[in-house]
Protein: NADH-quinone oxidoreductase
Organism: Henriciella barbarensis
Amino acid sequence: MLEFVLERGNYWAIIGLMMIGLYTLFAATNLIKKLVGLSIFQTSIILFYISLSRIDGGTAPILYGKDAKGHSGGHDEAAGAHGAASEAAHAASDAAHGAADAAHGAASHGLEHVYSNPLPHVLMLTAIVVGVATLAVGLAIVVRIREAYGTIESDEIRETDLEVARAEYAVDQADEANPA
């Protein structure tokens, strides 16, 4: 049991960061501290996805050396080689090879390298950009709230809103009682 827990230490650290971020987001009354908690939570989610996509012995999905041969898509061939005659020659050549040779080649090629999936990393780069944009918009809103209310404490902002609502209600009641 201890070995199971210790092998997954990165997940425990990520869960700890996630809980710290959530606690800060919900417990803080200062709007800046709430944004810091949101950023910590977003960072923990990004770390979680990156650690999930890790493959033991996996390498970056970059073709190099002998793997790169034949993966150019024909872009390195002469311009005149493309055409019906070239396609017919390729089809005849492919048909000449036996199914056993093709299966053996595919199986041996698949065992040469283990590649990591790049999609989670790309998605997390997008999440980082969205997180930075969210933080920037949140900070801009906090600045506007500070200008309007004179504070960035959420409980003081609620009290001010409640006082304004009570005053507006009293004015509306007075207008209804004394029609002009």
Q: What stands out?
A: Residues 96-100 have pLDDT under 50 and may be disordered. Residues 119-149 form the longest helix (31 residues).
